[in-house]
Every structure is written in structure tokens, then in C-alpha cells.
Amino acid sequence: MNDIETVAAVPPIRRNWNGFELSDALMGFVRASGSWNENSCADIIRIGRYIEGSWAPGPGDGEIRPSAAGSWTELVGRPGALALRAASAATRPERRRVLLDFLEMWARTPFADPAYRFRVGRLAGTTSFTVRDRHGASFGLHLPAARRTLYFEALLPGAENAPRPEEPLYAADCHRGWGTPEQLLRLVELVRERGPVPVDADVVLALSGATGLSRPAAALVLAGNCCGGSYCVPFLDEHERATYGFKVAELESARREMAMLNDDERLALLADVLPHDPADLWEPGGPARLAERIAVAWAEQHGARPTAPWSTWQAAVALKTEMPAAHLCHLLLDPPNATLPPGFHLRIWPFAPEHRHLRTAWDVMGRYDAETVTDALFTGLTWAYADLPAGDPVRAGAPEAVRHLRTVLAGGDSPARVMRAGLVHGERGGARWDWLTDGTCDRVMSRITADDLPAGRYESDPRACAPELVADVADTLGLSEDAVALHLQLLTLPVPSDRNVRRWNAWTPARHKAAAAELLAHGLAVEDRRARAGRTLFLPGPWAHAKQPLPPMESWKAPLTGARLSAAGTEVLDVELPPGTLPELFAEAWRLVRGGEGPKAA
């Protein structure tokens, strides 16, 4: 059966979907919001018939003009992205029904017929028009809000030019890829007969490793759900979250990670990744082959990027920086080529032949963007040093990130000036500038490059970074090494939660409990329950509360952690940069305690 016969055999779509349902199904691929309505699908069919020459106005028919503000033209030659979304088990059922009907509709139009040729561009004028002859048709749609006029041209098979009342400013050929009528209808049939393609965790992992995407972002891409906007609330429903198998915060970070792409790039990424025969998606190895094609398409768009270890990425999510976790990790994994974070790209009006100007995260365009980078970087540097194990590639990349930051700051261009001004004069800028230039940063980074820690050990464990100090404290206080380690962590670290302590020290709950019992027996700690502390063991003395995301802590140790307290000392106002390396701070805490200046009960 040829494509023309296939189109003729397609039954009418089951219903006219309303604008919200269409916008919801197309989100992330097409500028759909507010421009689609219950007549949009019928309008597209009518336009296709007009182009073919088979449309004759009936009673009550209006004029032919592109519907949905012309945004549907972005799908010409690229329905593969919608087909991938329709076939994925991670797509919510109500969206799948709309998508399958839409693909059926699309297959009935010349926009799916490879014999037609389409161009899209822009006009200098502001007049809407519709013209047609034996060669094809062209449309002009004035968009008052954008103060531009869309140009769309359709050429019949074999034709070279279509009629036009004026020359466009430019007109580029639309992409022509996967999505013939036969392919579209075959996929629709398979989804309805066999059900959607399940999410495969191994395939997700493979795509993540091949592209540098986080695992949740790779899962979103494989499901055709790589939306970056927040215009759908909730972004994922319970069905989708359960299918992906990731936590809400992880999926939200992945959504922001994908915001680096605009709608056009998402369509382009997935336009040609489906197999020639859609049935291959359900065959053994089919999803893996799909991931391989997506990885190739990703590399062509963005190049290959290093991947952070899964546990490191999860820890980065918990930092809740404005920059998504994958981009924060990339700042340290590959500083010179750091991924563009959300909001840094220039959004070119759709249909422009130019692509956005790709930049790295360092090539910022204004103060807000500079703050995004510096906030993420300084948070990332201290986190990588103190909270990631030796041998972690993100931790190992921190010194190079500092070197690159200094190179950028030494430049004379606008981004360098903006970043310098933010560091010197910003709300946190003076403290950051001092930390960067007074030798503290160099000493912290030297702890990483010295490679003194055994692989897998943490600088936050004083037994690993300051064993001689631990031995001294143990002899003086008559404590075990475990109890000394916990004592120093309570004295020095901003968030010695039970979970963190067990991770840093590689302790079981029982071992942790035994160390805590020693401190309680010696009067060096007290038991209590305090909001957002994540622990029941505390230093004696006053307590400073904090609003999220700042950590509450004992007031005594604020100077050691880089925390700034309220005048009364009862609230944490900020926690920024520690005033030294952890071995230095552990030693200073012990000096204060040994000299009688340690924490005391009120």
C-alpha cells in the first residue's frame, strides 16, 4: 500500500480536542499555549486540502488561514517527537489519546507526504494573505504581539516555486525526516494494539552515560517528555512519576536541566530517532537502539559531556541551587565547556534560520546570570570539597574550576566585569572575593590536589583528614576515636545530621549510637529533638533557628562554619564559605574547647 492509499484509508479522527488538551499534549515541542482551540485540527486538515487543491468552501466555511498562530508549522517534517511521546509508557493516558488522534490527522495531510516541499520564513510586511496556483500555495499570517508576519509556503510535487504577493525576508526549507503517512499510522496502530513501550532503566542509564544527561533527564528524553517549561502544572502526574521511578525533586531538577533547549531544539533532537519500522520499538533491543540514535542526535546538537556519578548528582539536587544539578556538576567536571544553564540562551523568534548563539555558563549577559553562575560555583566548590568522597570526579574538578574562574575574572569583557562587580560589591560578594583571594580558597583546593585522603573517604571525617588531631583528643578526653570524630563534627560542621555523619564515617546506626553514648556520658553533648536538625545529639548551649534552605545550628559554632547569625544569635541569616580547611577548623574547634572556650549550657 502506498502513502496516498494509506491516507485515503484513514478514518476521521474521533473528536475535536479542545485547546487545552492540544496544548497539554504538544507542550515542550510547539508554542501551543493559548493559540489552539477545538477547531485547530480541522483547520489543519482544511489547509492541507487547500494546498492539494481538493478544498471547496461549504456553507459557513471561513477563509483559509494558518490556525494556532501558525505554530503547527513547526511540526512539518518533524512529527517524530510527538510519535515518540505517544509511544512511551511514561506519557499520561489522556495525552496519549490526543497525540494518537493528532498523528492520525497529520497522516491525512500533505504535511506528512514526502512528495511535497515546504518552506517557512518571515515577511517584511504586515498583511495576512492566502494565495494558490497549480504550483502550490503560500500564506502570510500577521502576528501583532510579535510585530512580525509568518511566511509559509507549500510546493506541490515537482514544483519549484509557489505564488507569493511579496518576497519573504527569508524562507528556509522545512526539515523532512521520519513520519511518512505509513510510519505514522503504523505507530498509532501498534500503540493501540500492543500498548506503550515500557521505560527500561538500563536504557536510561546507557543514554545518560552517552550524553552527560542526568538519569532522570535521559528518561524524559527517551519518553519524548523533555519539556523545560513550567507551564504544565503539575509537570508530571502520579502515573508518570511512578513510571519513571525517580523522586519528585530529581524529576524537577531534570526538567530545569532540559530548559537549556527551546521547543525547536527538542523537535529537532527527536525528529529522526524512531526506527524506520516502528515495530522495532517493541522488539528485544529496540529501546536500546532508540537510545543510540538519540545519543548521536544529542552529540550533533550539543557534543558529548561528562557524566557525574549518580550519588553525586543526587547530592547536588539536595543543594537546591538555581542552576540544575547536572549543570552544577558540569561546572566542576568540565569547567571550560560548562553547560549553558536555563535562561542564558537567546530565544530567536521561531522560523528564523539562525540558531541561538551557544555560549558556556561563563559567558553571562547580565547581573542576574552572573549571580546564577557565581552562586552555583561557590556553593559547588565548598560542597565538592567537604561533602564528596576522594576520587569523585566532580570533587577532583574543583581546583580547575577555580583556575577557570580566575581566568574569566581577569578578562576585560562585559561578563568578566559583571562577575567581578558581583563578587566585590554584591550582597555576599565581599566575603566571596576575600575567600577567593586571601589564600583560603587556595588552601582548600590544595587539600583536594594533595590527594591525601584514601579513595572513598571524606574530608568531613576527622579520622581521615586529621588523624593526629583525633589521637590527641582521644588521649586528652579518654574517648574512643569514633566518639572523638563525632565530637569534632558536632563542633565544626554546619549539618552533622545522622544521615550525613553515617555517610561521612561509613557507620552503621549501631556504631553511631555507641559513639553518641560516649559523648553523652562525658557531658559533651545533649539529647533533644529540634526542627529540621536531622539529629538528636547536640552541643550544649544556645540554638539558632533557620528558615529553609539554611540549616539551623548551635550558635557557638557559627564562626567555624561561615554562618552569619542575627544580632541576638538566635537565627541563622546566611551560611556561605568556611574560613579554612576542615583540618584547620577541626584543630581550631579543639583549641577553643581545650582552652575552656568551648560550648557551655546556658
Can you tell me about this structure?
- With 602 residues, the chain is an alpha+beta fold.
- Among the domains are: 3-55 and 63-194, no CATH class; 462-594, no CATH class.
- Helix content is 46%, strand content 8%.
- It has 27 helices and eleven strands.
- It has helices at residues 3-9, 19-26, 40-52, 80-87, 93-107, 181-194, 201-211, 215-222, 238-244, 248-258, 263-270, 286-302, 310-319, 325-333, 367-387, 393-396, 398-409, 414-425, 429-437, 440-449, 462-465, 467-477, 481-492, 498-505, 509-521, 558-561, 582-594; strands at 117-123, 129-133, 136-143, 148-155, 170-173, 526-527, 537-538, 543-546, 553-554, 563-565, 571-575.
- The strands form three sheets. It has a five-stranded antiparallel sheet, covered by helices on one side.
- A hairpin with a 2-residue loop joins β2 (129-133) and β3.
- α23 (481-492) crosses α27 (582-594).
- The radius of gyration is 30 Å and the shape is elongated.
